Structure formats: structure tokens, C-alpha cells
């Protein structure tokens, strides 16, 4: 059992060897750059090895007028900020502070796996292999959910960059890609189901806000809801979906502010009390 624990890259550890730290540094940088390169490249270029149904990321988004079609500007800004934050996380792998270094290494395996899943998802998505892309995004959702609940108590520089940012996007991407994948994505039936399923974004966000006081999840999901709202508004002004999306955005944003401001001013440390009482269920929102 002890040897299995040592081999398992997802096992919790209080410290990491020099070799494992070096491995995390190399694989983290390589997979992060891989994720960035394919995201930027296929934002502006179609696959060259290709068929007529192969398009850029946002061409695919616009070709299928689903109930989860996004505004590419807002969504792109979300990813640019996330990539920058992830770069800040990676810097901590060179930290001289043992606590920060161990915390960065502890989530490294999940982060590397997330990058690989994102790379594969983009490669499949732009080539219209939506079924396989959906499978990967669901598996990555399981990976990131496991990360969220298995590694509590880490600082914001880890939580936003490695956990809540990718997790929020992956949750919505299940619907985004899934709506494209189904037959007749622009049909009335698909729109009705879209009108229903979009409310899961609100439920999912409020779960983390209420249960864990995780204002980063609330903010991330509100931004993505805004991307959907703007995308739906410019697609069809007379429709429910953009109204629902903006309602979800506003609700999550207000709930986020209600949690974030007391936490920032030091007037409410409820999440810290929860962490001390039950470290296995605490949010990953400690200070740097």
C-alpha cells in the first residue's frame, strides 16, 4: 500500500522529492504551453490537414446557433486571464517557501492532466469530432472535481488558476459542446432543453458560494454566463435564453460580491472557520 501511494501521482503528500519537483516543473510548463499554443492557434486558424467541416474554435461556435453559443470576445478574455493566472501558479514551483512549493506540487498532477485534456478537446472540437470531445470534457470535469474536493485549504493563487477557473469553464463546456453534438442543435426542442439546462449554471454556482463561500466560482460562472447572454442576444433578440443568461449572471455576481467584500475586508472569515472545523470540505481560498 505504501509503495502504491508513492507511485500514485494524485496521492496527497506532505513533501515532494527533488526528482518529483523537477518532473512537475517540466511537465507543467510543457503541457501548459501546449494548451496555450493550440488555443491561440485554432482561435485564428483552421486545421490544415483538413476536411470541409473543420473550422476555428469560434467558427464552430458560430456555425451551430445553439442555446449555449457564446460571445467569443468575452470567452477569449476569460481564457487569456486564466492562462496568465496559471503562469503565476507555475512560478510557485520555483518558490523558496517550502509550504508554497509543496502546495503547488500537490495539485500538479491534476493540472497537467487538465492541460492534456484541454489540448485534446481543442484538437477534436475544431475537427468536428464533438462526441469524442464531449467524452474528454466530461472526464476532465471528473478530474477537476476530484481536485476541488481532494486538496482543500490552498491559497488563492492555486485555487483560481488551477481549480475554479478551469472547473467553471469545463462545467459549462459540457453543455456548450453537448448542444453542438446533438442532432438538430438549433431546433425548437433543443432550444427548450437549453432554456432549462442553463439554470444548472446558477444552481452549480450557488452551491459553491453558499456551501464553501467560494466567490471565485461565482465570479467565473458569472463571466461565462455573460458570454452566453451576449452571444444569445446577438443571435436572437426576441428569445428567453439571453434573458435567462443575464439573470444568472446578475444573481451570481451579486452573491459573489456579498461573499467577496466581507472576505476582502476581513469582516467575515466564515470560510476559515469552516476550514478549521472540517479541512476535507474547506474551500481553497487561503491567502497567498
Automatic annotation (TrEMBL):
Query: By its UniProt entry, which InterPro entries does this protein fall under?
Result: DUF1774_fun
UniProt KW NADP keyword: no
Q: Which UniProt keywords apply?
A: Membrane, Transmembrane, Transmembrane helix
Query: Which positions, given as ranges, span the membrane?
Result: 21-44, 73-94, 101-123, 129-149, 161-180, 192-210, 217-234, 240-264
Q: Does the keyword Cell membrane apply?
A: no
What PANTHER family would the database entry show? DUF1774-DOMAIN-CONTAINING PROTEIN (PTHR37992:SF1), EXPRESSED PROTEIN (PTHR37992)
What is this protein identified as? ATP synthase F0
